[in-house]
Design brief:
Main location: secreted
Protein name: Fibrinogen C-terminal domain-containing protein
Radius of gyration: 42 Å
Subcellular location: Secreted
GO biological process, one term: positive regulation of heterotypic cell-cell adhesion
Shape: rod-shaped
Bound molecules: 2-acetamido-2-deoxy-beta-D-glucopyranose
Helix content: 40-55%
Largest sheet: 9 strands, antiparallel
Pfam family, one: Fibrinogen_C
Number of domains: 2
Number of strands: 11
Length: 404
């Protein structure tokens, strides 16, 4: 019996199962939420359970077989002893019948009785030693079966630790998703949980240039009304598939777990897309009215001009304003109300991408200045589309993210 070999084999199988490759994961659909971690572990657990059951069945049958062999031996032995005893008894009885004279002597008879009882004692002692051996064997096998449970318990513990680990490993932003699940499709809706968030939530991710961008605002055709109050802007609104504002609270949580880059894409009605990028972007918390922290405009790669932090009307440090929470710099005016939107208004803005959607590029003068504005690109012009996205800046990214 090679019990040690079996245990080693079992552990080896468990190791194989542990390192089960994740290559059979399903491909990622563009707009399906991605929950690949759980099924993979459930499948792994199922395989482990299968291996455990097979090994236990095998060992139990082995135990049965061994016990059978020993019992058979014991029965053979018992049978041989029985026939011996039977022969002795026969000898005794024939002696009784035929040799009465010797009985008078008594010696032969006593001798016979002595031999008989000696045989019986030896028989009894051999039987009990055999029983002891069987008991010992049973104990050994039970110990072995218990041992067999141990690696499984160990693996179970590992799995539960891994699960905790995976829970902590819920991506904290789209860049995390890119790093965890690469290769990915160009964009989609994914679940993230920033370190500062108590709950996970869905975001739209754009994967580009070896990084993952978390989209915080999208305008495309005016299907969603952006003239909303403080709570809507705080919690977010719209549809991640079309137009939306992710929500100031979520943006605050995202941008306070590392340094974030802000990338604004605006598409005019009559021209191709323009870009403005800032190396530092963050929102303070609600007590600070989601104050905008923005700096390091990247003039080398930006084509739309700086309409957020230019000295002309610098929104850096500006509080967020909605029509029902006026934090702009004008005591005589409510910018959010006047311009039908919500933004980090100053007095009032250089940019305003949450304005009412206008289906033309035409300049809309003064108080009627609705629309999506980025003044450094075109004063009094409303944009056709806008996408505002953010990305965590990694210390290693100079060699990694800029590779492509
Ligand atoms: C001994 O005697 C008894 C009765 O007389 C008889 O039944 C038995 O078969 C005899 N045994 C032998 C071995 O001859
Ligand atoms: C009894 O038998 C033994 C041999 O078995 C013999 O030596 C002895 O003399 C006998 N005694 C009697 C009293 O017959
Ligand atoms: C008991 O076992 C011993 C050792 O296995 C053997 O020598 C002896 O003959 C056995 N006794 C009987 C009555 O079978
Ligand atoms: C019974 O098993 C123990 C180990 O569990 C072993 O040390 C001992 O020698 C065994 N005894 C017999 C009689 O097999
Ligand atoms: C990705 O790289 C291309 C080519 O360098 C560049 O034009 C584009 O703006 C980059 N995109 C982002 C989001 O940085
Ligand atoms: C805007 O675009 C989305 C997606 O293409 C579409 O479902 C929606 O109907 C459009 N809305 C308007 C007002 O054009």
């Amino acid at each position: 019996m090679h019990t040690i070999d079996l245990v080693i084999l079992f552990c080896f199988i468990l190791t194989l199962v542990e390192s089960f490759p994740s290559s059979t994961e399903p491909p990622y659909s563009v707009f399906g939420r991605q929950n690949k971690v759980r099924p993979r572990f459930r499948r792994r657990e199922l395989v482990q359970e299968e291996v455990r059951k097979t090994m236990l069945t095998y060992m139990t049958s082995l135990k049965g077989e061994i016990t059978d062999v020993v019992l058979e031996e014991m029965i053979d032995y018992y049978n041989s002893q029985t026939s011996k005893l039977y022969r002795l008894e026969k000898e005794l009885s024939s002696l009784k019948n035929s040799s009465l004279p010797t009985l008078q002597n008594g010696t032969t008879m006593n001798d016979l009785i002595m031999r008989l009882s000696k045989q019986q004692r030896s028989f009894a002692s051999n039987i009990s030693s055999m029983e002891y051996k069987i008991k010992n064997l049973t104990n050994i096998l039970n110990d072995l079966l218990n041992e067999l449970q141990k690696p499984v318990q160990h693996v179970r513990r590992l799995i539960s630790i891994k699960k905790d680990f995976d829970d902590n490993e819920i991506p904290i932003d789209c860049d995390d998703i890119f790093r965890q699940q690469s290769p990915v499709v160009s964009q989609g809706i994914y679940r993230i949980k920033p370190r500062l968030s108590s709950e996970s939530f869905d975001v739209q991710c754009i994967f580009e240039n070896n990084t993952g961008w978390t989209v915080i605002q999208r305008r495309m055709n005016g299907t969603i009304d952006f003239y909303r109050g403080w709570d809507d802007y705080k919690n977010g609104f719209g549809d991640l598939r079309t137009e939306f504002w992710l929500g100031n609270e979520k943006i605050h949580q995202l941008t306070n777990q590392g340094q974030y880059i802000l990338h604004v894409d605006i598409t005019p009605w009559d021209s191709s897309m323009r870009t403005a990028e800032y190396e530092k972007f963050a929102l303070d918390n609600e007590n600070e009215n989601y104050k905008l922290q923005i700096s390091q405009y990247q003039s080398a790669i930006s084509t739309a001009g700086d309409s957020l932090s230019s000295p002309w009307d610098n929104a850096n440090g500006a509080s967020f304003s909605t029509f029902d929470r006026d934090h702009d710099n004008l005591f005589y005016d409510n910018c959010a109300l006047t311009y039908h939107g919500a933004w980090w208004f100053t007095s009032c803005f250089q940019s305003h991408l949450n304005g009412a959607y206008v289906r033309s590029p035409l300049a809309l003068q003064n108080t009627a200045r609705n629309g999506l504005h980025w003044n450094t690109y075109a004063l009094y012009h409303s944009m056709k589309e806008s996408t505002i996205r953010i990305r965590r800046k990694h210390t290693s990214e100079t060699s990694e993210a800029l590779a492509i």
